[in-house]
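Reminder to self: tokens first, then the designed residues, so the page reads top to bottom the way the pipeline ran.
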């Protein structure tokens, strides 16, 4: 993650307000401050609000989209290490820690050669049950996993049992958040 950077939008761009998840359009030629650019998406401060801009719209900020560079396993299966790497590129727009180190991923199952092809099933939670960004975070998980080679289907289910707590953070996350 880099320090905050002020940029002028190059074109109109869709964003979602944080934490509500409400869709907004940021007009072209608007000054925004990039407060977080992790995992290919951007959190920006605009008009006194935080908003998330997806990586495929990086050009609106004068940035390049993040390219994934996984090698395709020759045996046609899904590589578990690649799945976890993809998950570690999914971030909460308010917290500079990935969903794995936040402890949001409760279960990851990879089923190769099913009737649906190669299927990944994720069971995850959010830091707060009422989080308006929940659909954005789960969509990010799904989209990033769909780009892992040989993946045919991704299912992401949300649960709040057990509810998330800060004890679920990895030591790396606690260090990043100043909790160690």
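Designed residues (180 positions):
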């Amino acid at each position: 993650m880099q320090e905050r950077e002020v940029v002028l939008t190059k074109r109109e761009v869709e964003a979602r307000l944080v934490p509500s998840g409400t869709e907004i359009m940021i007009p072209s030629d608007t000054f925004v401050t990039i407060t977080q650019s992790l995992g290919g998406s951007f959190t920006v401060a605009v008009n006194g609000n935080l908003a998330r801009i997806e990586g495929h719209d990086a050009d609106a900020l004068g940035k390049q989209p993040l390219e994934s560079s996984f090698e395709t396993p020759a045996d046609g299966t899904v590589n578990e290490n690649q799945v976890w790497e993809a998950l570690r590129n999914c971030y909460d727009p308010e917290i500079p820690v990935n969903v794995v180190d936040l402890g949001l991923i409760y279960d990851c199952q990879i089923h190769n050669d099913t009737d649906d092809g190669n299927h990944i099933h994720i069971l995850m939670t959010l830091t707060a049950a009422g989080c308006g960004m929940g659909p954005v975070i789960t969509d990010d998980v799904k989209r990033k996993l769909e780009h892992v080679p040989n993946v045919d289907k991704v299912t992401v289910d949300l649960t709040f049992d057990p509810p998330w707590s800060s004890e679920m953070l990895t030591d790396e996350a606690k260090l990043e958040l100043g909790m160690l």
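The CA atoms of residues 59 and 65 lie 7 Å apart.
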